[in-house]
Design a protein that fits this description.
The chain has 213 residues and is of the alpha+beta class. Helix 1 packs across helix 2 and helix 4 crosses helix 5. The longest helix is centred in the first third of the chain and has 19 residues.
Length: 213
């Protein structure tokens, strides 16, 4: 398991976390606050605190998202929101359950590098609507050689001078080509490849990824 985060400025609104769940499973979170800079970093710190608090209560992933959302609706200024990808890894069964709140898709790649599962969000971003509902994706059994990747849109929206974006396809092609590398090296490499694609134009968004092999 590896992760990397590169803020566009001194502080950023992207976030990843690994959380020990009461069941002995590993919670994996990846979030992105609307906006950049210090204000977004404060919102993400608040989100992290709520998420860790509710994750200790033996709730299902969709229930955790609903509780965090309820708190953020009370706290955030109108129009501010957080997208969040939340997964639960059962290491004994080698299985993954996923729920997302308005976050861009994650992916499960096969040993050959082909996409086997797309991890779509099944609810709106956090902090917008008090009655938002979420649901968990059916359990995915992971096989030897599988790669799970969660991204923020700072990677996919990295744009070259002419406006062309790196896109999910660019990220997936990079992962497939470097799938034999360690997870942390793939995560760091996603940032480097996206920046290379953008011809090292000034980075305008935070770039974060989590990779499980």
């Amino acid at each position: 398991i590896g992760a990397a985060s590169y803020p566009a400025y001194e502080t950023g609104g992207d976030y990843f976390d690994f959380i020990a769940m009461p069941s002995g499973h590993l919670g994996i979170a990846l979030g992105d606050v609307e906006g950049h800079g210090f204000g977004s970093a404060l919102v993400m710190a608040l989100t992290r605190a709520y998420l860790r608090s509710f994750a200790t209560l033996a709730l299902e992933l969709d229930q955790i998202l609903a509780q965090v959302n309820r708190m953020l609706v009370q706290d955030l200024e109108h129009g501010r929101f957080v997208t969040l990808a939340l997964a639960c890894l059962d290491t004994s069964r080698r299985s993954l359950i996923y729920a997302g709140a308005g976050h861009m898709p994650g992916f499960v790649l096969s040993e050959s590098g082909a996409v086997e599962h797309v991890l779509e969000s099944n609810g709106p971003p956090l902090g917008l609507f008090s009655d938002s509902r979420f649901s968990c994706r059916k359990e995915i059994l992971l096989q030897p050689g599988h790669i799970v990747v969660l991204l923020t849109d700072g990677i996919t929206e990295s744009a070259a001078h002419g406006g062309e974006e790196f896109g999910a396809q660019g990220a997936l092609e990079y992962i497939a080509a470097d799938r034999n590398e360690p997870a942390r090296k793939i995560a760091d490499g996603l940032h480097l490849e996206a920046r290379r694609f953008a011809a090292y134009e000034p980075q305008t968004d935070d770039i974060t990824s989590v990779v499980l092999k």
